[in-house]
Specification:
Rossmann fold, 52% helix, Oxidized Rhodanese, domain 1, 2 domains
């Protein structure tokens, strides 16, 4: 079992007993609670979706034991670890029994790298008669497993289109129609522009965003088509993992075309109800990109509640940025799909009809 200087050393029987460990894929497939025995701070930074924080040490205790290890050696650190953990053992068992329930669901336990924290907790819970599985390699192995999932999504299609073309709403409508969709903006809780955080909950950390993406990718049927919206590498403060980002940029590209008036109407409907000051702040963040005159004109139109005019000013900038994006991806020949004004549901159906039987397009 790998050493971990910040964790206690339980009895020799715990160290020598064979551990029932599972690799990440098998571990995630087991039905039962996931107990993350890392510290609360580690858990808050990122965790397996659905896991329960079940810390062996508090953040302060973990720091204390780690400091002792560095300054006074392993034995002193382990002795202090035992002092800290000893009074908690009965509560660990009581709480674990409640999570396992009357059906005695397997308790899936992990720490950072499958070391002494998870091994010690597994020993304790098994001694109490509870079924336990340990994640081989710990959370670190889970993160590596998640990265590999994004390296091959053969049915992937990227949906592109200028701002206001309703890509997100169309993806949601496609999901209702039974299509597989990876909603990156939903996972990131951000729409990917200066206005992207309006009406959204606080964004997760990049680590948690990527963990949530891992859960989504695990749920895909890889023999079927998968839709994802074309995005920048970052969505707000969340970064798409490199393997999946590369896969997105290799996938066939579907590009929506929608008349400007319809796009203006959509933006007004989508953003017009937000507080004026929140909209003004988003416009101010674009001052350098809009240019001073257009920035001032957009704010003046907002103050006068001429929302369509505001949208037109903003689209002038966003359309230029989109054209630059198209130049960067000119090697990928897009499939153009022209849409008229209409509902996302109607657009989703038009899109599927247009792509039916297309060569080189996943069906």
């Amino acid at each position: 079992m790998p050493t971990d200087p910040t964790n206690p050393m339980l009895p020799a029987s715990a160290r020598s007993a064979p551990q029932q460990t599972l690799k990440p894929g098998a571990f995630l497939a087991v039905q039962g609670p996931i107990l993350d025995v890392r510290s609360p701070g580690e858990f808050a930074k990122g965790h397996i979706p659905g896991a329960v924080s079940f810390p062996l040490f508090s953040d302060a205790e973990r720091a204390e034991v780690g400091t002792l290890y560095k300054r006074k050696g392993q034995q002193v650190a382990m002795d202090r670890g035992l002092e800290l953990v000893g009074p908690k053992l009965a509560e660990f068992v009581r709480r674990a029994r409640a999570l396992s329930g009357e059906d005695k669901l397997p308790l899936r336990v992990h720490c950072w790298r499958g070391g002494m924290r998870s091994g010690s907790m597994a020993w304790l819970l098994r001694t109490a008669g509870l079924p336990v599985q340990v994640l081989e390699g710990g959370y670190k192995a889970y993160r590596q497993f998640g990265a590999t999932l994004g390296t091959s999504v053969p049915g992937l299609l990227t949906l592109h289109g200028p701002t206001g073309s309703g890509k997100t709403a169309i993806l949601q409508a496609l999901a209702v129609l039974g299509e597989q969709v990876v909603d990156l903006e939903g996972l990131a809780r951000h729409r990917g522009s200066s206005f992207g955080g309006l009406g959204q909950k606080p964004q997760p950390s990049t680590e948690q965003f990527q963990n949530d993406l891992t859960k989504t990718l695990r749920g895909l049927e890889l023999g079927r088509r998968v839709w994802v919206e074309g995005e920048s590498k970052s969505i707000g403060r969340c970064y798409i993992p490199d393997p999946f980002w590369a896969e997105m940029n290799r996938a066939p590209l579907v590009e929506l075309e929608l008349p400007l008036p319809a796009r203006v109407d959509r933006l007004v409907a989508e953003y017009g109800s937000y507080p004026r000051e929140a909209l003004a702040e988003a416009i101010r963040r674009l001052r350098k990109r809009l240019g001073g005159l257009r920035h001032d004109q957009a704010l003046e139109a907002l103050e006068a509640s001429r929302l369509a005019e505001v949208a037109e000013h903003l689209l002038h900038y966003y359309d230029q940025a989109y054209q630059q994006h198209r130049v960067q991806h000119k090697a990928r020949k897009p499939i153009f799909v022209a849409l008229e004004a209409g509902s996302p549901e109607a657009h989703a159906r038009q899109l599927l009809e247009r792509l039916a039987g297309q060569d080189g397009v996943p069906q």
